Amino acid sequence: MKIGIFDSGLGGLIVARAIQKALPEYDYVYLGDTKRVPYGNRSHDTVFEFTKEGVEYLFCKENCAIVIIACNTASARALRRLQKMYTPSLRPKSEHSPFAGGEGKKILGVLIPAAEEAAKFERVGVIGTLGTVSSGTFPKEIKKLNKKTFIFQNPAPMLVSLAEEGETKNALSFIEKYLEPFRNKKLNALVLGCTHYPIFKKEIKKLLPKGVKIISQDEIIPKKLKEYFKRHPEIEKKLSKRRKQTPNESKASYGARILVTDKTQTVDNLTKKWFGKNAKPKLVQLGKA
After folding, report:
1. Strands, E, within 136-220: which ranges?
2. Predicted confidence (pLDDT) per residue in 184-208, tens digit
3. Is-contact 86 60, C-beta < 8 A?
4. Could you tell me which residues are beta bridge partners of residue 123?
5. Cα–Cα distance between 249 and 227 in angstroms, integer?
6. With left for phi above 0 and alpha for psi between -120 and 50, is residue 104 left, alpha or beta?
7. Active site residues
């Protein structure tokens, strides 16, 4: 069985690459809903339905034992509900598992690990999609861990579209605009509350005062996943291990199956950039979209 990684688009590839580098022995399937990206401006119910379709595909079609939702909007708006659907102890007795073979499979998100890191600081800024910011999930989760932390949020919606196009230079003016509200907040840390945003990590760092910690999920999730497997060996034992690498397979692309719902030139370029020249995204369809 495999480790599935689901995102609204291509931003989660950065997290997927980091996970694969830290845990290279497992088989991975990445699914990016590039046809319907971004999720940040969608309604609560729509985000849930789209995410449900992605998780269902990875469990039922790709034989995944665990799925990581590498999308903060989906983590904020759909994760808890999906976890209840898949966990018998949390699901009402009148309801059955929604998908065949769904029992015992796990769904994790990327938002909580970032909140755990942010709770270590006194004054924290958060940039994210409109959906993530409006959900209030980051402040809620951070406050659970540290009531003394001050949290300041600002949406940065255009960064998702720019990341999907691989446009780092054209993003500078937008980044300046999105960071402006934090100028006088005396931040100790800034959470990149979207898995697309690490693409702009260098640009963001240049615009922040010295000493401000950037909390980026590609640096956090691999370690958290390792810890999770140690606590849950029953899940880890289900995972298939990679066969021996052949000379023609690049280390970057090997072991990862990449699926997208819309295949464009940008998709090909960014996948090869992050997973090697042999990476070949496959087109799939979710739901009725």
Report:
1. 150-155, 189-193, 213-215
2. 999 999 999 999 999 999 999 999 9
3. no
4. 150
5. 29
6. left
7. 71, 194
